[in-house]
């Protein structure tokens, strides 16, 4: 069973567009119809795994934010894995945006980026509609 090309109407297998929706000929447009071949176990495994990973990591970041309200808990050995996993990712944003009035905005940017990655990973296995579905 081979892979079928799931591109938009008017685009051949090599990505050369005959005529786009606006009537303009595009010489080298190569749409990404599906990054992972559709309707396979691998697709479901990879996409679901990525979505779950980003969701779990986002929850770890939120727990790290809540733990920052209790500075005495930073010395607890049972909580060290949360700090070890979350702080390197948050430090990337802390170096870019300094605290404003003592308020650290890096978790807001980190969570927004994680949500964008989660949404993008959910779209990895999406296929474009074919002519029959339009």
Automatic annotation (TrEMBL):
Superkingdom, natural source: Eukaryota
Biological process per Gene Ontology, one example term: chloroplast fission
Assigned GO CC terms: membrane
InterPro entries: CCB3/YggT
PANTHER family attached to this UniProt entry: PROTEIN COFACTOR ASSEMBLY OF COMPLEX C SUBUNIT B CCB3, CHLOROPLASTIC-RELATED, YLMG HOMOLOG PROTEIN 2, CHLOROPLASTIC
Organism: Rhodosorus marinus
Listed name of the protein: YggT family protein
């Amino acid at each position: 069973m081979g892979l079928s090309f799931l591109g938009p109407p008017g685009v051949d297998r090599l990505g050369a567009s005959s005529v786009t929706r606006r009537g303009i000929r595009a010489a080298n447009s190569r749409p990404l119809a599906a990054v992972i071949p559709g309707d396979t176990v691998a697709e479901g495994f990879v996409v679901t795994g990525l979505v779950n990973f980003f969701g779990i990591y986002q929850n770890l970041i939120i727990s790290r934010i809540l733990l920052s309200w209790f500075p005495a808990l930073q010395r607890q050995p049972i909580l060290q894995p949360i700090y070890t996993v979350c702080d390197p990712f948050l430090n990337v944003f802390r170096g870019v945006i300094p605290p404003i009035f003592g308020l650290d905005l890096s978790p807001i940017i980190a969570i927004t980026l994680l949500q964008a990655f989660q949404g993008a990973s959910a779209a990895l296995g999406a296929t474009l509609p074919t002519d029959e579905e339009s």
